[in-house]
Write a structure and sequence with these properties.
By secondary structure, this protein is an alpha+beta fold. It has one domain. Helices cover 33% and strands 19% of the residues. The longest helix has 13 residues. It is globular, with a radius of gyration of 16 Å. About 17% of the residues have low confidence.
């Protein structure tokens, strides 16, 4: 049996360091997934957009989401998922969230990040807070690990600068948020910058 372990990071650099730590202890990049907000175009411009039918379309590099040579980070691809806006992603979670649209006529990508997280074993509340965290500028890292390695992987991840999602969910709800809404407008680069600054280590 296996378990999915997911962590939210406010900064991509912290998440990518965690990816490397997991790969260093032998977790295959096939069992890892990363979904990172790209509103600030830190990882390049998004090649997709909104087509005439109102569907979010994939960029030309979306194929990388399904895998890549080398480590997980070598397979990053640019795409958009409703409610999240432009993201970079790689691995199984991103492929699940966007998979219904990949290969479809016109390359439409359907939104399914909450469903993908719930299918991976997360509670409804966890899935919504994780998705909202990405919408607001965060990076999500998920790992599928065998039961006998769960404690080891959790120990590695919890040495990194991860978000306490119970606390973050409480903060979101205090501001009037209730659940992730894929029809809500994506955060702009300026909004993402303000959100990240709110949780910067020197502000805590």
């Amino acid at each position: 049996m296996s378990k999915t372990i997911t962590r939210l990071f406010d900064n991509y650099a912290d998440a990518s360091a965690a990816v490397r730590d997991l790969e260093a202890i032998g977790i295959s990049h096939d069992d890892l997934s990363i979904v990172a907000n790209n509103a600030d175009k830190h990882h390049g411009d998004h090649d997709g957009g909104i087509n005439e039918d109102g569907d979010v379309t994939r960029g030309v590099s979306t194929g990388a989401v399904l895998g890549g040579a080398g480590g997980l980070l070598a397979g990053l691809g640019l795409l958009a998922i409703p409610g999240l806006g432009p993201i970079v992603a790689a691995g199984w979670l991103a492929a699940t969230a966007a998979g219904a649209g990949i290969g479809a006529a016109g390359g439409a990508v359907t939104g399914g990040i909450v469903g993908a997280l719930k299918n991976a074993g997360h509670s409804d509340d966890e899935a919504h807070v994780y998705a909202e965290g990405v919408r607001r500028g965060g990076t999500l890292l998920s790992a599928k690990v065998p039961d006998d390695r769960v404690q080891e992987v959790e120990a590695v991840l919890d040495r990194t600068r991860v978000v306490d999602i119970q606390e973050r969910g409480r903060v979101y709800r205090e501001s009037g948020w209730s659940t992730f809404d894929e029809n809500a407008p994506a955060y702009s680069a300026d909004e993402v910058a303000r959100e990240r600054a709110t949780y910067a280590p020197d502000r805590l």
